[in-house]
Amino acid sequence: MTAPRSLQWRLSLWLGSGMALLWLATALVTMNNLRHELDAVFDSSLEETAQRILPLAVLEIIGREDDGIASQDMATLRTHDEYFTYVVRDDKGAVLLRSHGADDSVFPPFSQMGFASSPTHRLYFDAALQGTVTIAVAEPLAHRRAVGSKAFFGLMLAFGPLVLLSFLGVWVIVRLSMVPIRAFRSGIEQRGGGDLTPISAAALPSEIEPIAGALNSLLDRLRRTLEAERSFTASSAHELRTPVAAALAQTQRLISETTDASTLERATQIETALRRLARLSEKLMQLAKAEGGRLQAEQAVDVAPVLRMIVREMAKDGADRIELTLPPRPVMSRIDPDAFAILARNLIENALKHGAPDEAVRVILSEDGGLAVANAGEAVPPETLARLARPFERGDTHASGSGLGLAIANAIASGVGGSLTLVSPLPGQTSGFEAKFENSALKHPGKLEDAR
Amino acid sequence: MRILLIEDDTILGAAVRDQINADGHCVDWVTRLDAAADHARNAVYDLVLLDLMLPDGRGIGFLRNLRARGDTTPVIILSALDQVSDRIEGLDAGADDYMVKPFDLSELSSRLKAVARRYAGNPNPLIEIGDLQIDLAARSIRRNGKNVGLTAREWVLYEAFLQRPGQLMSKSQLEERLYSFNDDVDSNTIEVHVSRLRKKLGHGAIDTVRGVGYRLGTA
User: Hey, which residues 24-43 in chain B have their CB within 8 Å of chain A?
Assistant: First the structure.
C-alpha cells in the first residue's frame, strides 16, 4: 500500500493512529495497575479466609472425640463452585480437615506462614497451637486471570468506539482546517493563462500564507514583466515604424517628383527595399509577440467584431475576395484580441497570397472560437505541408513573402493552448488549402483543464 | 480641401504635406497637440490627419475633445500603433479611418478622397453634370468624352463646389480651402481660377452670385 498523497489523509491517518496508540497505552497501563490492585484484594481475602477458618478448624479438631478418624471433609449446604479451597493439617502433614472441593495435590507441605505460589494456585499458609495445626488456602490462578481478562475486555469495549470516534473527529477537524487551503487551490486553478490578479490569502493557515504571498508576488512580477514586454513591443513598433514610414513616404515623393529616368529607377528600388523591410520588421514584431507571453486576455471578449474589422480593412486594401462567415451569436474567447487579429490576418494574407488569384478565400469563425481559412489552388504536397509552419519556410511559390506568416499563426495557436492544422487538398477534393485554428481553451473559458 | 496635419516626425510630415499639396489640397502642418488645438479653433478644416503619439500627449485625447465640442470634421488617424485595441479605441473615439505606418502615399490620397466623399454625402466617385463625367476617385473629368486636364489647384476648387452642390460659397471661404495660414493670397486668385475652370469645363460649370459668391452650375 502506498502512503496517501493528500494532506487531509496523511494528517487524519497519523493523528488518528497516534491517538489510538495513546489510548491503547493508557489502557495497558490501567490494566496493569488494575491487576496489581486485584492481586492485593484477592490476597487479602485469601488471608482473611485462612484466619477465619483456622480458629474454627482448631475448635472443631479439639472437640473431636475419636482421634482415629484421619480426616474429615466439610459437608456443604448446597453445591457451588469454590474459588477458595483449603486443607487443615497437623504437624506431620496429615489432613485433619478439607473443604469439600479441595484436591490434596494442590497443596504443598507447610513450610512457613504467609503467601506462596504454585504454577496453578495462589496459596496462603497459617499455623495455630505452636504449629501443630496448619491451614493452607488455595485459590486457582485461572480465576484471577479470568477476572483480569473480564476487566480488560470491559475496558476495550469502552475504548474501541472512542478510538473510532477520535478517528472521525480528527478527520472532520482536518477537513475543516483544509477549507481555506482548498479555496486557495481553486483560486490558483481558476487563474487562466491571462488572469494574473492576486489570489485571496484570507483565512489561510500561517504556514501556507507565505506561499500565497510568494505566489502573489510572483504573479505581480509576471504581470509587470508582461506589461513591460507589451509596452516594449508597442514602443519599439512605433520607433521602428515611424522612420520606415518617413523613408518610404519621401521615396514615394521622390518617385512622383523626379523626371530623371535613372533617379526614378533607383528610387523605385529603394521603395521596393523599404517595403520589404517594413514587411519583415512587421512580421518579426508579430513573431516576438506570438512567442512572448500575454496571449490570453484577462476577460473573455467577443472575437467576431475583431475578425470583421480585419476583413474590412483587408478588403479596403484591395482584397475584396474574402468570404466571411460568422456565427449568429458572439464568440466569447480568452485569446488576446490582438493575438487573435495577428493570427487571423496571417492566415488570410497567406490564403490571398498563395491561393488561386481569382477564387474567393473563405474565412469561417465557428461558435467555439475556431477559425478556418480556406482557399482554392493547387494541392500542397504533404512533405511541404509539414514544414510550412516553420519560420522562413516557404512552399513552392513565386509569391513574395517573409515565410513567417504561418510560423506566427502557429506560435500564437500553441501559445494559447490550441492548435493549427494545415490541410491540403481540401477534404473530398483534389485541390485547395485550408488552415484551421482550434482553441481548446475556448471550450472552458475561465478554467484550466482539470489538472488533478 | 483644407487639411490639418498633426505629425511630429518632420521627415514623414514633410512627405505627407508635399503629397497633399501635390493633390492640390492645402495643409496646415503642426507637430504638437497644443498647436493643433489652436488651429482647430481658428480655422475650418475639411479633414484632419492625426498621429497618435505626439510629444505633448496622445492624439486620441485631441480627437475626443474635438468630438466633445460637436466638431464633425473627418479625422484619419495615421499611427504606428497597430494593435486591434488601438484601432478600436481610435475608431470609437470618432476617427473615420485608421492607417498604420508605414503606408503608401497614394493610398493616403485615395483614403482622403474617400473620406471626403463620404462626408459630402456621396460615396459614389462618379458624377455626371451636363456634358461632364467626373470621376472623383481618379480625379479625372471628361467633357463630351474627351479628357479635361485640370491643375491640382483647379481640381480642389472645383471639388469644393462638387462637395456642396447648390450651396453658396464666399470668396473667403474658397480662399480658406485653397490656402494655408502662411500662404500669401492675391486678392483676385479665386476669380482667376474660376475663369480658368469655366474655360475648361464650360461657362455654366460655376455660377456667380453677384456680390455674395459662387456655386456649382449645371454646366
Answer: none
| % of chain B at pLDDT higher than 70 | 97
Residue B79 near residue B54, CB atoms below 8 Å: no
Cβ-count burial of A69 within 10 angstroms (0-12 exposed, 13-18 middle, 19+ buried)? Answer: exposed
- For residue range A391-409, what is the model confidence (pLDDT) as tens digits? 776 665 555 566 788 889 9
Strands (E), A263-331: 296-302, 322-325
A229, A230, A236, A238, best to mutate vs chain B, most B CBs in 10 Å: A238
Residue ranges for chain A with pLDDT beneath 50: 442-452
Report pLDDT for B14.
95
pLDDT at B24 over 60: yes
Q: What is the DSSP string of A183-239?
A: HHHHHHHH--SS--PPPP-TT--TTTHHHHHHHHHHHHHHHHHHHHHHHHHHHHHHH
Element (H or E) spanning A154, and its range?
helix A141-190
What local confidence, expressed as pLDDT, does residue A269 receive? Answer: 95
Q: What is the pLDDT of residues B175-213, one digit of tens each?
A: 877 776 667 777 788 888 888 888 888 888 888 888 888
Q: Are the CB atoms for B19 and B109 separated by under 8 Å?
A: yes
pLDDT at residue A315, rounded to an integer: 81
CA distance A272 to chain B (A): 12
Grouping H, G, I as helix, E, B as strand and the rest as coil, residue A257 is helix
ipTM score here?
A: 0.71
C-alpha cell at B93: 473615439
HSE toward the beta carbon, residue A325, CA cutoff 13 A: 13
Question: Do A439 and A295 contact (CB within 8 A), yes or no?
Answer: no
Give ∠ CA A56-A58-A63 in degrees, rounded to 5: 95
HSE toward the beta carbon, residue B181, CA cutoff 13 A = 14
Residue A337 is nearest to which of B14, B84, B103, comparing CB atoms?
A: B84
Nearest CA in chain B to A251: B15
